Amino acid sequence: MQVICNGYFYADEKISISHAVNVFNKHFNISDHFYFTLNSVSSDKISELNSKHFNKSGPTDVLSFPLFESLDEINKLNPENEESLGDMFFCRTILKKNAVDYSKHLIDELQLVLVHGLLHLVGYSHVDEKKLREKENEVLDKVWNESRK
Question: How far is the C-alpha of 146 from the C-alpha of 132, rounded, in Å?
């Protein structure tokens, strides 16, 4: 799976995004022809999206808009075709705040929300919070362990 970045991204962010996406792809065996769009947006824009699509007020760190309901559905696609798996939006302002609040590096927080959002794009949801968090931790362990070697 490839990532198309919209908005401003620093060089180290692009490197960390690429690394996390590569680990995610290996974990789920997702075709290199598939892609998603990652949008860096303002606090106002993510608040607007959160309100319009999720009926929640205020800004959040990440929002995902999957085009498929499950990994099974994605796996039925022809891996040779270019297929969009959906869109993801993140707000750097909220990521920075969360990084400070949780004593993390901004890059770690970015990778966390990226993996979280990618899990939504392949069908994981908060309906089964335990399953979502277990898979998130499993993938993040690989992301962070491989990047620190």
Answer: 21
Distance CA 94, CA 50 (A): 13
pTM to 2 decimals?
Answer: 0.93
8 A C-beta contact, residue 107 and residue 19: no
Compute the distance between CA of residue 38 and CA of residue 6 in angstroms, rounded to an integer. 6
Report the Cα–Cα distance between both ends of the chain, in Å, rounded. Answer: 23
What digits encode the pLDDT tens for the residues 42-59?
Answer: 999 999 999 999 999 999
Domain boundaries, the chain: 2-144
Given CA atoms 90, 96, 99, 105 in this order, what sign does their dihedral have? positive
DSSP bridge partners of 65 = 87
Q: Is 23 exposed, middle or buried (0-12, 13-18, 19+ CB in 10 A)?
A: buried
Strands 34-40 and 83-90: parallel
Mean pLDDT of the 100-115 span = 96
CATH match of 2-144 with 3.30.465.10: no
Rg of the Cα trace of the chain? 15
Q: Is the dihedral of CA 32, 33, 36, 40 positive or negative?
A: positive
